[in-house]
Design a protein that fits this description.
The complex is a heterodimer of chains A (149) and B (764).
Chain A lengths: L2 E6 L2 E6 L6 H8 L19 E3 L2 E3 L13 E3 L12 H8 L9 H14 L5 H4 L11 H12 L1
Helix pairs in contact in A: 2-5, 3-5
Chain B lengths: L16 H4 L17 H7 L7 E8 L6 E9 L20 H9 L6 E5 L5 E5 L8 H13 L6 E5 L17 H28 L7 E3 L2 E3 L5 E3 H9 L28 H5 L14 E6 L7 E6 L1 H4 L4 E7 L2 E6 L2 H10 L1 E5 L8 H11 L11 E9 L2 E2 L7 E6 L4 E5 L4 H12 L6 E5 L13 H13 L3 E4 L2 H7 L2 E2 L2 E10 L2 E11 L8 H7 L9 H9 L8 E8 L14 H18 L4 H8 L3 H13 L10 E10 L2 E10 L7 E10 L6 H20 L5 E2 L2 E2 L18 E6 L14 H16 L5 E2 L4
Parallel strand pairs in B: 4-5, 9-19, 14-30, 17-18, 22-23, 26-29
Antiparallel strand pairs in B: 1-2, 2-3, 3-4, 6-7, 7-8, 9-12, 10-13, 11-12, 14-21, 15-20, 16-17, 16-19, 21-22, 24-25, 25-26, 27-28
The complex binds FE2/S2 (inorganic) cluster (2 copies).
Chain lengths: 149, 764
Amino acid sequence: MPTFTFMLNGATASVTTAPDEPLLWVLRDVLGVTGPKYGCGVGVCKACTSHLDGAAFNPCITPVSECAGRAVTTIEGLANGATLHPVQQAWIDEDVAQCGFCQPGQIMAAAALLAANPNPTDAEIDAIDNVCRCGTYFRIRRAIHRAAG
Amino acid sequence: MRVGKGDRALGKHRLTRSELADPALEPEGDPREGDSSPDSAANRYPAYGFSRRRFLAYAVAAPVLTVVVTAVDDIVGPRSRPAAASPGVSGVFDLSDALTLAALPTAYLLKIVVTADDRVIVHVPRAEVGQGITTAMAVIAAEELDARLESVDAVLDDARPELLWNQLTGGSNSVHSLYTPMRTVAAATRARLVTAAAQRFGVAATTLTTRDSTVVARDGRTATYGSLSAAAARVTVPAVPGTPKDPSQFTRIGQPTTRLDARDIVTGKAMYALDLPNLAVPTVVARAPTIGGTVLAVDDSAARGMPGVLGIARISSGVAVAATTFDQAQAARDALRITWNPGPNANLSDAQIRAKLKAAAPPFVVPPLGSLSVSREFDFSFAPHAPLEVLTCVADVRRDSAEIWYGAKSPIVAAQQIAAVVGLPSDKVTLHVVRAGGSFGHRLFFDPAIEAAQVSKALGRPVKLMWTRNDDMRHGRMRPASHHKVRATYLLGKVLTYEHRHATLPVDFSHGLGEALSAAGFDVLSPGVTQTVFALTQNVPYNFGVATQTLTDVPLAFPTGSWRSIYSGQTATVNEVMVDEIARALNTDPVAFRGRSLSSARTRAVLDQVTTAGRWGRTMPPGTAQGVAIHEEYKSVVAYLVEIDCRDRTAPRVTKGVCAVDVGRAVNPRGLEAQMQGVLTDGLSMTLHAGLHIDNGAVREGSYSDYRFARMADSPVDISVIVMPPTGDPGGAGELGFPAAAAAVANAYARATGTTPFSFPILG
Ligand code: FES
Ligand code: FES
């Protein structure tokens, strides 16, 4: 089996695996990086949302081979050491989470949105399609506006 | 010792709210060191009838201060068996009371440990599925202890069989039932810390004060709780009373508090069952195409050779495959060649199920002479709980013991059933309750834990078993479909009779709720547990003359389970839509009609709040409208006003929500607001677009792409929540809002479109 090397949260990661193994399971089952969550496995719920070269993507439908030589950031790599990313801080300030399961994906989606569009409108925030079964959308929206501050 | 005022046996006298909200507190009565015998309280508890309950807190022998609280009941008057609950009782004695009552007579309920490094560990016999129970418990403990909230850790207890029925997380009962015990144990802990400080300082304990996890003397000397813990553990009789504060002294309870685990969640550190570091191997199960289908034959020759496969095992629900990664397990599962026996409903689809439900609802009684009537019929589709974390469980079954990690809301029953399935004595099964990614009722059941235990035993290794999203949608438990016939008769603008016939599939309560109700003295056998729960929860909150609501169970073999707010999600939602229909027939404004027909002043007050704050009746463009609804349950009341935009009928959008909620006392208003905001998302989803379809005994939907639970684009940009000022002890909140939110959306839809919806979800 081939070996794939990529940057993971700022460090080099190498895995020997089938090329079509979805990155989500490489992260979770091989590398023990469990921040990205499984909620559907088919690119719908967005619970696994992470960043590939800074853009939001869904590791559950991205083969590991596509990540070779690129930079993967998961929720674990979003903060700068002990300093939270402004989106994470806004999430705490707005007390967004209920069960919390969707929130790594929500935060990564919001961080990617804000990186591309520092002051999104409500209509632009509506384009975030991540499911929150606890229904925290109202607070997510507020937290995004706060982080855009 | 105070004695009871008389016989308060259920069924003999109806318990009033104030009687129930007034448990005698004698927290420091008879502090016997080391007496934490799990049976001592249980043995004294009678099968039926009680008069007065008290919570006793005492320290147990330990190197650091460890205080527990237990409940005892002093019996006066004859024991008498409560009659089966009768419809209409719920306004007086309801499910909250029944669960609280069931929870009382057990071994120690709660434990607080003060560690030498200044942490306060609060052990909570409940699950955390997002409702913020752990934060609420920490707030209560910090309040009574005068501890820094940041130094309090709330941890979930493992399954504790000695707790009997008091480890069931459901019925929005956790804060309601644990509020007084938690205050009692925390206040008793503080008393011992103060006593230890008095001994150290050589001053009278009554001269000491506490703040920020520190005891402070008048001369300025201080001692941290951590530094006092070992000495406090040796205090036999506290020198100050361990009496909880008067609520007027509260500085924490009632303050908006951010969840204690907020930082763990936003950094990805919060761990759910599949995130736990262990050697368990990824496992999935091949399941039948139809619900309840079984394996006839399996050929696993191709699957066995697939990459990463570690084992294949036939279990009761299908064929399990373990592999190095979940992707490999799923690929090998798909390579299994299985012949299935069809499930029991293979020739049933939605239309037939609806027809059966409709036919089952009994007819109305003869209407009063000369009256006019409004008759309507409603139906609801099946609905999945669909928590975002699919059902998952880690199981390590050995030859003579087993260890299970599961986000269980009924861990005792789960552990017992796992023990039975794998052939171990039940005391050899340890079940750790882990944080879970949502429940909405689903995690009262433990089907995946049974499966994981079976697979672990068969393969002889620890496994982490995951239901895929497809499994969850197509084989998970569901809120059953229902049909409702409702008729109101009226004369001269006054409702004379109100009849509601609710026909549905039997809701499965085999997770321990039935036993809990039995323990509380309810005869659940003759009317059946579904009838008992229905009677305990359903109440027509209006002065509608003779009001009767009946439940008819239509036994069809689908996996059911209670869904956020149990029957009320359908029954009370229908009632609130009917109230608008009656108001329309009477040519009355629905808010004015509610105002004059509601029986409770508390409910009128929350309705007033939302109609004032939401500017009820403001002019709005055609195709848009407001709607209101109320709900009373769990000792709490709530009202919603929503605005909807139906100018595109295919994509109605709720644009605004105003909620007013009175839970008696909000321990954490910020968490309460979150529940009210979230449940509005639930309500609009279920009313407008989220439901399941059954085709030939199988669920059509497979994921969130076709099960249309709300997304950001469906969510109102403007939601405000008004938390009413405290008036007493906390009631329930987690499920409270659902019926009112769902009905307010339906009522707004009806007013915006001129078409009342009778079938939910409206968009099919
Ligand atoms: S798990 Fe990746 S989108 Fe759902
Ligand atoms: S917080 Fe529970 S799914 Fe979003």
